């Protein structure tokens, strides 16, 4: 066996050297948004249960939902819902065998991010105007 001088090099790529492809980042983000949707669902379910419980419970839950923290959680959940929906549609195309090469995956990842942000902003505009 050859004596290879490995020096002090790392055995595997580190984050300083290796950069994840955008398709990998969006795949990881899809899983994260799926779990993050639970925060919005819990907040909405708590608000609905408080509405049927008592006026005091509803006042407390309504205060939390209307606070800046509730706004951030619900806005983040709304973006996560759009992102997760668009990622699911992209996954259907992947299942059919479309968009699997590197360039198409890169473009669909960019479209996924831009589309989710655009739809979230559009939803906020429609919500606050109408």
TrEMBL record:
The cofactor binding remark recorded in the entry reads: The heme is bound between the two transmembrane subunits.
* Keywords assigned by UniProt, alphabetized: Heme, Iron, Membrane, Metal-binding, Transmembrane, Transmembrane helix
Q: Which PANTHER family match?
A: SUCCINATE DEHYDROGENASE CYTOCHROME B560 SUBUNIT, SUCCINATE DEHYDROGENASE CYTOCHROME B560 SUBUNIT, MITOCHONDRIAL
The signal sequence is: none
* PROSITE patterns (alphabetical): SDH_CYT_2
Q: How does it assemble?
A: Part of an enzyme complex containing four subunits: a flavoprotein, an iron-sulfur protein, plus two membrane-anchoring proteins, SdhC and SdhD. The complex can form homotrimers.
Q: Which residues cross the membrane?
A: 20-48, 68-89, 110-129
Q: What is this protein called?
A: Succinate dehydrogenase cytochrome b556 subunit
Listed under GO cellular component are: membrane
Cofactor names from the entry are: heme
The cellular location(s) given in this protein's UniProt record come to: Membrane
Q: Which family does it belong to?
A: Belongs to the cytochrome b560 family.
Instruction: Provide the function of this protein.
Output: Membrane-anchoring subunit of succinate dehydrogenase (SDH).
Bilayer topology:
Multi-pass membrane protein
Q: What is its main location?
A: membrane
User: Per UniProt, where does heme bind?
Assistant: 84
Q: Which GO terms describe its molecular function?
A: electron transfer activity; metal ion binding
Query: Domain of life, per the record?
Result: Bacteria
Question: Which terms does the UniProt entry file under GO BP?
Answer: tricarboxylic acid cycle
């Amino acid at each position: 066996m050859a004596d290879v001088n490995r020096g002090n090099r790392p055995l595997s790529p580190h984050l300083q050297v290796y950069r994840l492809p955008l398709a990998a980042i969006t795949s990881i983000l899809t899983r994260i948004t799926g779990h993050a949707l639970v925060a919005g669902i819990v907040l909405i379910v708590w608000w609905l249960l408080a509405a049927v419980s008592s006026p005091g419970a509803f006042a407390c839950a309504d205060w939390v939902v209307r606070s800046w923290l509730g706004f951030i959680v619900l806005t983040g959940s709304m973006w996560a819902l759009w992102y997760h929906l668009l990622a699911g549609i992209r996954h259907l195309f992947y299942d059919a065998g479309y968009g699997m090469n590197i360039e198409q995956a890169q473009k669909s990842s960019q479209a996924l991010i831009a589309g989710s942000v655009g739809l979230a902003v559009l939803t906020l505009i429609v919500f606050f105007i109408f």
